Amino acid sequence: KSAFLCSEYLMRNIKDEVSPQMNGIFLSNKASSLETDENYQERSFIDQKIVANPSIFVYTLPNVMMGELCIRYKLMGEQSFWISENFDAVSVSNYVNLLFENQLIERCIVGWANFYKDEECIFLSLVEKTSPQNADNQIFNTQNLNIIYNKLISL
User: Fold this and answer.
1) Which of 3, 20, 31, 143 would be 116's cystine partner, CB 3.0–4.6 Å?
2) pTM for the model
3) In what order do the strands lie in the sheet with 119-128?
């Protein structure tokens, strides 16, 4: 839900001048969907019987969050979700810049969306190839990604 709300803010003034196939998304987190997976496992075993519910299980996949964003904002280009111990600005910057250089995307939502137990941390940024700056007019590079991320998580 938080990722959806953050992306609403990011995309609020975006016009559809970029082809949907040139809109990408690259997200990562630490816990994947572990909390949902644990809840699913608890609900699946009642009185020693397996009571599986596919409508719950499907939401254990981390790409469901991305799928919802892709549908809402017509992100039909490159889509990737990585699991890592911490936000990795180097990998994000390198990967997205490679996509820009190879003309695979022109616009991309990038970020970290981690939710586990009482820990919630979300950071999303919108970057475009035509303007190497994000929505806050920061140049898209590893250093600035780290600065923005660190400011947000310290709030």
Assistant:
1) 31
2) 0.80
3) 79-83, 23-29, 107-116, 119-128
- Tokens standing for residue 111: 């970020």
- Taking CA atoms, 56 is separated from 39, 42, 50, 82, 106, in Å, by 9, 12, 14, 22, 35
Q: Are 126 and 109 in contact (CB under 8 A)?
A: yes
Kindly give, in sequence order, each residue whose CB lies less than 8 Å from that of residue 9, ignoring residues fewer than 6 positions away: none
Give the list of residues 6+ apart from residue 26 with CB closer than 8 angstroms, or none.
Answer: 78, 79, 80, 81, 82, 92, 95, 96, 108, 109, 110, 111
Secondary structure (H, E, C), 41-87: HHHHEECCEECCCHHHHHHHCCHHHHHHHHHHHCCCCCEEEEECCCC
pLDDT (tens, 9 = 90+) of the chain, 155 residues, equals 778 888 899 888 887 778 999 999 999 988 777 666 776 667 666 656 666 666 655 555 566 788 889 999 999 999 999 989 999 999 999 999 999 999 999 999 999 988 878 777 888 989 888 655 555 566 788 998 889 888 887 77
